[in-house]
Structures are given as C-alpha cells and as structure tokens.
Amino acid sequence: MKKTTNTLLWLIQVISTVVFCALCVQAAGLIFFSVYHVIDPENSREMILGIDMAQLFSLTKIDFVILYMLTLSIPVLKAFAFYYTLKIFNRLNLVKPFSQEIASLISKISYLILTIGILGTVAFQYSEILDAKGFELNQLQNWWNDNYAYLLMGSIIFVIAQVFKKGLEIQSENELTV
Asked: pTM higher than 0.85, yes or no?
C-alpha cells in the first residue's frame, strides 16, 4: 500500500481519537452537571458547555427532563459512533477488507448516526415549540443545527454498509471458487 494512504489513515485515526475524547468529555460534563443539579440546584444554574442552564430551569420539570435527555443523548451517541470508528481502524485489514465484524461496525455506525439525526430533529422541533411558548432556548438550539446533515450522513453510511455486506458475500464466494 502507498505510504500516503497509510499516512492518511493514521491521520484520520488520530483525528477520530481526538473527537472521541472531546465527545466523552462533553457527555461526562453533562452527566456531572445533572448529578450536581440534583445535589445542589441553587448553585448549578451557571453555564456549562456553552449553555445557560437558567433557561432550562425555567421550564416545567417534564420539559426540562425531555430537553435535557435529548441534549445528553446526542453527544453520547456521537461518542459511540466515533468509538465504533476507532474499532474499525483497529480491525481493518486492507489486504482482505471485507469481514463480518467490519460490516457489523459500519451498520452500527449508520444506525447511530441516523438516530443522532432523528433525535436532533425531535429536540429542535421540541425547542421550537417551547420557544413559541416564550422560553428562549437560542443557545440550546445551536446544539441541533446539524441534525439534517446527520440524517443525510447516516443514510449514506447505511448504503455503504449494504455495499460492504455485498462485498463480503462476493469475497466469500471468491474464496470458495479458488
């Protein structure tokens, strides 16, 4: 394999690792904040991760829980998607690239990314409803402004997963005929 290909794959793996770590920190910060809010609600009204939490606390409890769970689930799912991406890099064999494990990981990534897009769309629409009721959630809506990109990306990765599964079938047939 060419040296530039190896270098590019290594660079993508490093970037994926950095993004995975950042998403883990983001998700951990939100989890820590929720626990801290249960313990000390008065002092937890400050900003965390760029979100003014006071605007969330002004919501009803059910609205707060729904919006907070949607806010928390998205970085967690993104972290899982990058975790599976890193697993692909660790198990990828470019001499014989089609394996059941890689096909399964690509499928999982596509489902995760589609779920991120769907949850982002639901969260955005829900925050729009709350915005119409007078709650200002502009900072929070910025977390979901890329939901349609995730829907498109998830769809494309799903198609790639199906092509990969077909490649796996063809590779298996070729091994049997030789």
From this structure: no
